[in-house]
């Protein structure tokens, strides 16, 4: 029997988190001690579908095939093919059929391969589950879990379904992928869930968010600590993850498409139906859906189709609508001449090459169109945890009262205690500096860098390498012992290499790693004789944990406690200040709170560490978890210090954001974290400046917002903001989607990056969704168009760079193909005036000459243009205009200018030969064959003219490919920074595919002209002699014309300006330069910036002889970045 596909309704009268364990078990008809019976499992399998998510699996092959066949350009070619067969021109029809087959095959197989690649990334979130059935513990595939199953959870397990917890022993679950919160959530059994912010118990499901339902464990989350058991309440698409997955596949109907006449009036049925029909045909024809380039090319195809019909009518009209086979063939030839048959093949292959490049750069393209769309990205909406940051905790600061502050530097691996170094600095006053108020530090100009460097070195003398002292030791011991995490150096399986292995929750791992830096790890201390006597686990209600250890030297029982600062501070009656203990006063408490705020403002989670000596011997017989002793143990404590832990940004994030800024791309952080943490991280990675007061008031007020404030605004109020927020904290999925809609209303084109389930709706609604392959959920990957296999933010920048390169190349080969089509149409339309003795129009080019030029002569140079390397300035300019797409005003004008130039040159050649040499003799019936019966009817003049025009047009198209390597720079100096006097040969040989395509294409003209039979019967031309001079001369005239037009554009500055989007018109004038706000730029960033400045700019010559090593070292400090004032005034009006 097939499994049901529709989920039954909820089997409990209220949500299980509101019910007691007994009520849940009773309503689900299960036994918490023995589980379900075999009979119940069979019945439930028949009632419920498999426990799987329908998160957009791989696309079926027939869907991909239909998508390729319904392409606009393919439909146009099919129509032309049908006409060719209709007039019995089987050669031309066969060639067109081959072209169609090639285009469809390439697109189908490449997209199908991309889907197969994606299938390999999709893995079940929870491959197996431990269940209790008939009183026996069984391991089953997670897909076989049913509601009512008793699930056994332990550390490291992935929760297979939504579970109502009824047994929890220190059970903590990592719900980061679901809620966005980095800290594991402790689970409990009781159902006394209060409404957040109120003391009243919740009675309805909507009163409490999923993150506050502490007695529920959710599908796809992982157990980080402890063990427990629970009752499965929801499976498959009814889980919280399934609900989010379903929201990404539901496409709301567009406004005005309803046919409800009762609600909207009698005319609505007609209006709604008409709009739905329009949507259907618009989608089928590719005119209303797809990326900007796809829509533009679809519109172009039908425009050209209309032009082809118009040209056919012109041909029929000139021949007085006496439509013979000859006239029909000429009409088809003229129509085909305006259609770039190889455009789809060139476009698809170019995208496939780009996709292959991205695979090597750890980027999987699920949809070929996504790679093209990347080039137009103006904004990136990114989740913080795991995307901009590592999703791991590292101790950043340790404050010991009146001792100093210990700082961990250059550490990015949360598991490696040997990475980086620890320095000790003076204790900061609450104002921020020793005895002084904190001052705003502006970035120092490069000209003042050496002096500033010396000054910085002097001030850095106050920092010293940290050494173990009695004060630090007093902090390290409780940090290591009041901790359940482990840190060890172990060999990997099958390898001799040792790596650092950790277990436990991230916060405790961070503390253990810090203690391990000084060789004060828990294992070493216990080896030295420290013996654990008791443990009081972390309790979320009091937010602290305590342990009792016996000191091997004094044999005294020591109590060590860590937890939230406010909770620990209330239990302290003294504070350790160096070697002394001072009584806790209000002034000292205020100082501690100020230090906590200082660390929290830097994006760190702050914990307090305290200790005390137990009077006498601690009663070992009580063991651990003795509530009666906890209140007695956790009192009269002495505060030792504070520790700041933060989730560090990825090492490459700052550079990536800086490069995005240089490329005209804004990065928005949309996160579920606390506003203070989100703001601090945003400042550290350069999304926003450290001092918001340097910005205009209206910009500063909107640059950072909480989701609740943003959600409270209407669409009109959001649209009225001078600048959309760069940081949105406490985001829900709906907030992220609304942010994307606000960006879209401003005419922006955005990408959304994310890895968690909560990112899936945004990934689905964004123009380009980018999911993380390593840590991303199945739902997120299914909703995205692009998957990063290495989860690195800088891979996004590489993808955008490739997208821009590909977009530039698409512009080049589209202009190349269409310019040649314009030249052919001009020649053929003018050719209607060339009539033989029987008043039949004479073809200046035969039909197969046209197909030869369109498919072979034009295609391979177009492929070569698609392989052009990226410009050195490709990431130092704004994204291309979404309004124009590929067909910018410059491209359209260039296409017409070059097409007219080609058509004029070839037409003049034909006229010179026919009328200047052969006195206008055009023979008789020369469109069918080579007639030489009489002098008057001889086709030799026409055949010689065709051969000359064919050779000339071929060479013009080939030379144009070299000219189009740059649409503004001269072919003879493509790189203005080159020192070579004549770099032509080096530049054209740089792209070897294009070079040989041009050379071989030029040489192929000779066999096509001279091979007997092939020339007269297929191409309908003959060998020529002196006519080669006309062809060579036309090439020179064409090159001079192209160079003259480029010079005019450079001299006048035509087509340089780009249309600003609405965001730039409102707030862009303030010139926020993201990526330059960070405290320091990495060495990699400095090297890349230095190398870029050396390439193609004259500013590099003012380096004054400074070595590269010195320049890199200098650029690594704060003063290497541009001044904040210069960044703000760069574009101020």
How is the secondary structure organized here?
Blueprint: H1 21-27, H2 38-47, H3 61-69, H4 72-86, H5 90-121, E1 128-133, E2 136-141, E3 150-154, E4 162-174, H6 176-179, E5 185-186, E6 216-217, E7 222-234, H7 240-249, H8 261-264, H9 268-284, H10 292-318, H11 325-337, H12 343-360, E8 363-365, H13 368-374, E9 379-382, H14 384-388, E10 394-400, E11 404-409, E12 421-425, E13 432-433, E14 436-437, H15 449-459, E15 464-465, H16 470-481, E16 486-491, E17 498-503, H17 506-517, H18 522-527, E18 531-539, E19 544-550, E20 557-564, H19 565-569, E21 572-577, E22 580-583, H20 586-600, E23 605-613, H21 627-633, E24 637-646, H22 653-662, E25 666-670, H23 675-685, H24 697-703, E26 704-706, H25 707-712, H26 715-720, E27 727-729, H27 733-745, E28 750-754, H28 760-765, E29 768-772, H29 778-783, E30 786-788, H30 793-831, H31 847-857, H32 859-866, H33 889-917, H34 940-963, H35 984-990, H36 992-1003, H37 1005-1010, H38 1014-1018, H39 1027-1052, H40 1062-1066, H41 1083-1094, H42 1108-1115, H43 1124-1129
Parallel strand pairs: 9-25, 9-28, 21-24, 25-27, 26-27, 28-29, 29-30
Antiparallel strand pairs: 1-2, 1-3, 3-7, 4-5, 4-6, 4-7, 8-30, 10-11, 10-24, 11-12, 12-15, 13-14, 16-17, 18-19, 19-20, 20-23, 21-22, 23-24
Helix pairs in contact: 3-5, 4-5, 4-11, 5-12, 5-31, 10-11, 11-31, 12-13, 12-30, 12-32, 13-30, 16-17, 22-30, 30-32, 30-33, 30-34, 32-36, 33-34, 33-39, 34-36, 34-39, 41-42
């Amino acid at each position: 029997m097939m499994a049901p596909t529709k989920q039954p309704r909820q089997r409990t009268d209220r949500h299980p988190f509101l019910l007691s364990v007994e009520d849940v078990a009773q309503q689900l008809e299960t036994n918490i001690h023995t589980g379900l019976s075999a009979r119940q499992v069979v019945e439930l399998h028949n009632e419920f579908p498999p426990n799987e998510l329908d998160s957009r699996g791989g696309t079926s092959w027939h869907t991909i095939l239909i998508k390729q066949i319904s392409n606009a350009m393919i439909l146009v070619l099919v129509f032309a093919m049908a006409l060719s067969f209709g007039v019995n021109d089987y050669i031309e029809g066969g060639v067109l059929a081959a072209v169609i087959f090639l285009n469809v095959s390439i697109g189908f197989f490449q997209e199908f391969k991309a889907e197969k690649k994606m299938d390999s990334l999709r893995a079940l979130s929870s491959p197996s589950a431990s269940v209790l059935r008939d009183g026996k513990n069984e391991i089953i595939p997670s897909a076989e879990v049913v509601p009512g199953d008793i699930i056994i959870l332990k550390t490291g397990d992935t929760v297979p379904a939504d579970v109502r917890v009824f047994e929890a022993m220190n059970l903590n679950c990592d719900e980061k992928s679901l809620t966005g919160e980095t800290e594991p959530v402790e689970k409990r059994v009781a159902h006394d869930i209060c409404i957040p912010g109120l003391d009243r118990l919740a009675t309805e499901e909507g009163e409490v968010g999923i993150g506050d339902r502490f007695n529920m464990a959710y599908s796809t989350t992982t157990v980080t600590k402890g063990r427990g058991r629970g009752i499965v309440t929801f499976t498959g698409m009814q889980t919280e993850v399934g609900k989010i997955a379903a929201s990404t596949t539901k496409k709301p109907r567009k406004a005005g498409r309803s046919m409800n006449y009762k609600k909207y009036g009698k005319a609505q049925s007609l209006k709604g139906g008409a709009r739905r029909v329009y949507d259907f045909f618009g989608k089928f024809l590719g005119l209303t859906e797809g990326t900007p380039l796809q829509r533009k090319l679809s519109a172009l195809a039908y425009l050209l189709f209309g032009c082809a019909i118009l040209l056919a009518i012109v041909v029929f009209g000139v021949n007085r609508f006496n439509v013979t086979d000859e006239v029909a063939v000429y009409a088809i030839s003229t129509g085909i001449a305006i259609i770039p048959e190889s455009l789809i093949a060139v476009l698809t292959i170019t995208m496939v090459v780009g996709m292959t490049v991205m695979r090597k750069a750890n980027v999987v393209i699920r949809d070929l169109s996504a790679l093209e769309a990347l080039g137009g990205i103006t904004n990136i909406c990114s989740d913080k945890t795991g995307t901009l940051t590592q999703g791991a905790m590292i101790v950043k600061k340790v404050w010991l009262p009146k001792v100093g502050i210990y700082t961990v530097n250059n550490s990015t691996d949360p598991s490696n205690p040997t990475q980086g170094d620890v320095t000790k600095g003076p204790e900061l006053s609450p104002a921020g500096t020793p005895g002084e108020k904190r001052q705003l530090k502006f970035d120092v100009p490069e000209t003042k860098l050496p002096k500033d460097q010396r000054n910085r070195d002097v001030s850095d003398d106050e920092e010293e390498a940290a050494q173990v002292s009695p004060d630090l030791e007093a902090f390290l011991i409780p940090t290591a012992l009041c901790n359940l995490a482990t840190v060890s150096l172990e060999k990997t399986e099958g390898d001799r290499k040792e790596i650092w292995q950790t277990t436990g929750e991230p916060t405790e791992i961070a503390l253990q790693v810090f203690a391990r830096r000084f060789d004060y790890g828990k294992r070493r201390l216990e080896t030295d004789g420290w013996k654990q006597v008791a443990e009081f686990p972390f309790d979320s209600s009091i937010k602290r944990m305590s342990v009792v250890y016996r000191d091997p030297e004094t044999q005294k029982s020591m109590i060590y406690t860590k937890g939230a600062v406010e909770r620990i501070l209330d239990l302290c009656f003294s504070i350790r200040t160096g070697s002394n203990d001072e009584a806790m006063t209000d002034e000292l408490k205020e100082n501690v709170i100020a230090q906590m705020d200082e660390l929290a403002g830097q994006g760190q989670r702050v914990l307090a560490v305290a200790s005390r000596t137990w009077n006498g011997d601690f009663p070992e017989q009580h063991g651990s978890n003795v509530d009666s002793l906890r209140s007695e143990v956790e009192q009269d404590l002495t505060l030792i210090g504070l520790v700041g832990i933060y989730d560090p940004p990825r090492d490459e994030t700052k550079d990536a954001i800086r490069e995005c800024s240089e490329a005209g791309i804004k990065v928005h952080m949309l996160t579920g974290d606390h506003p203070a943490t989100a703001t601090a991280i945003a400042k550290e990675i350069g999304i926003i400046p450290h001092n918001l007061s340097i910005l205009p008031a209206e910009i500063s007020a909107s640059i950072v917002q909480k989701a609740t404030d943003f959600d409270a605004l209407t669409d009109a109020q959001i649209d009225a903001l001078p600048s959309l927020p760069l940081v949105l904290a406490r985001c829900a999925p709906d907030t992220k989607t609304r942010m994307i809609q606000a960006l879209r209303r401003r005419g922006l084109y955005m990408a959304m990056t994310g890895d968690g389930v909560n990112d899936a709706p945004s990934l689905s609604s964004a123009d380009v969704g980018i999911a993380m392959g390593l840590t991303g959920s199945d739902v997120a990957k299914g909703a995205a168009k692009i998957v990063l296999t290495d989860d690195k933010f800088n891979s996004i920048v590489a993808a955008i760079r490739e997208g821009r390169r590909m977009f530039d190349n698409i512009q080049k080969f589209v202009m190349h193909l269409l310019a040649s089509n314009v030249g052919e149409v001009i020649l053929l339309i003018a050719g209607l005036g060339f009539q033989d003795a029987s008043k039949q129009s004479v073809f200046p080019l035969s039909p197969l000459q046209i197909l030869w030029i369109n498919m072979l002569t034009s295609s391979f140079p177009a492929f070569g243009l698609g392989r052009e390397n990226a410009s050195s300035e490709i990431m130092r300019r704004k994204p291309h205009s979404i309004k124009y797409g590929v067909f910018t005003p410059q491209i359209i004008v260039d296409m017409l200018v070059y097409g007219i130039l080609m058509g004029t040159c070839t037409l003049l050649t034909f006229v010179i030969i026919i009328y200047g040499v052969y006195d206008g003799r055009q023979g008789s019936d020369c469109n069918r064959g080579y007639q030489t019966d009489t002098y008057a009817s001889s086709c030799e003049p026409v055949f010689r003219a065709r051969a000359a025009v064919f050779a000339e047009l071929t060479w013009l198209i080939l030379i144009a490919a070299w000219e189009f390597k740059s649409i503004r720079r001269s072919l003879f100096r493509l790189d203005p920074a080159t020192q070579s006097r004549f770099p032509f040969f080096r530049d054209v040989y740089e792209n070897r595919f294009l070079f040989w395509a041009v050379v071989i294409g030029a040489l192929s003209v000779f066999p096509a002209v001279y091979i007997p039979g092939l020339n007269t019967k297929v191409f309908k031309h003959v060998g020529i002699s002196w006519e080669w001079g006309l062809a060579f001369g036309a090439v020179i005239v064409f090159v001079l014309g192209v160079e003259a037009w480029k010079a005019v554009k450079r001299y006048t500055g035509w087509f340089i300006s780009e249309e600003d989007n609405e965001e730039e018109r409102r707030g862009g004038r303030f010139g926020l330069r993201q990526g330059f706000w960070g405290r320091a730029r990495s060495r990699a960033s400095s090297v890349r910036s230095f190398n870029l400045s050396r390439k193609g700019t004259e500013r590099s010559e003012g380096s004054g002889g400074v070595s590269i090593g010195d320049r890199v070292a200098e650029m690594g400090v704060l003063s290497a970045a541009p001044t904040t004032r210069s960044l703000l005034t760069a574009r101020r009006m």
